[in-house]
Specification:
Largest sheet: 7 strands, mixed
Keywords: Cytoplasm, Methyltransferase, RNA-binding, rRNA processing, S-adenosyl-L-methionine, Transferase
Order of helices and strands: HEHEHEHEEHEHHEEEHHHH
Organism: Acidimangrovimonas pyrenivorans
Distance between the termini: 64 Å
Pfam families: RrnaAD
Strand content: 15-25%
Bound molecules: S-adenosylmethionine
Function: Specifically dimethylates two adjacent adenosines (A1518 and A1519) in the loop of a conserved hairpin near the 3'-end of 16S rRNA in the 30S particle. May play a critical role in biogenesis of 30S subunits.
Structural class: alpha/beta
Shape: elongated
Strand order of the largest sheet: 4-3-2-5-6-9-7
Oligomer: single chain
Family: Belongs to the class I-like SAM-binding methyltransferase superfamily. rRNA adenine N(6)-methyltransferase family. RsmA subfamily.
Number of strands: 9
Length: 279
Amino acid sequence: MSAIDGLPPLREVIAAHGLSAKKQLGQNFLLDLNLTAKIARQAGDLSACDVLEVGPGPGGLTRGLLAEGARRVLAVEKDARCLPALAEIGAAYPGRLEVINGDALEVDVLAHLTPPVRVVANLPYNVGTELLIRWMTPAQWPPFWESLTLMFQREVAERIVARPGSKAYGRLALMVQWRAEAKIVMTLPPEAFTPPPKVSSAVVHITRRDAPLYPADEKILARVTAAAFNQRRKMLRASLRGLAPDIEDRLLAAGLKPTARAEEIPLKGFCALARELAR
Ligand code: SAM
């Protein structure tokens, strides 16, 4: 029996249910329940929250979330082989775990969740960034979630929290930081996973803001940052030329140097330019 609950250790669960890891599903499992409980704690107090977990696999993080007191966990898993193992966890925590067998990119989870909701997941790398972008760009803000506590490849985590002037700074940092606060709360070596991936991983904790940090039209801001970072080595007056015939004047009106490069410009500057281009 494991230390955090009365269930068998994950190695036994995996062996009993024949859950050999499938590469095409991004299956790198966490088997250390002390580690998964620690990840669950990074999400804050879960006792009054529903937790959405994407990709529970054999349930290591699910067990961490439940042991740490999550009110309810809704887990969306694509691989039907994992369902019997997850059912055993559900039986140990009656009424607190709901499992949906489906693709997280397609399932409508909202009908299954009661606010407040926190998202906590060791995401499959192949869908992680796609889900993050969707969660950051809902039709209406604030979104259905209060916070996102997500495992990424370390390089992606660094792009999410990057500050101006760094190589990792770009569209992902701006998209997330416009509407949320993001920080790396844990880093994990490849050996923390079974099988180990090729690269290190990091957990990012993202807390939503009630409103964006600076006013701007979302679509215009996205267009500006896309153009600026698609040609990140060029000066803004060149990379943004397609956005307005008088782009130099617009840049100056927004308080930006036309000769500056995208990676020097803070979020505030991009928002000022988006507002200027909306006039
Ligand atoms: N959470 C488990 C853990 O920490 O050990 C497993 C993490 S593993 C990196 C990713 C999990 O996501 C796998 O169980 C995989 O089957 C599942 N998965 C992959 N693509 C998915 C998708 N589109 N929708 C839902 N689950 C998916």
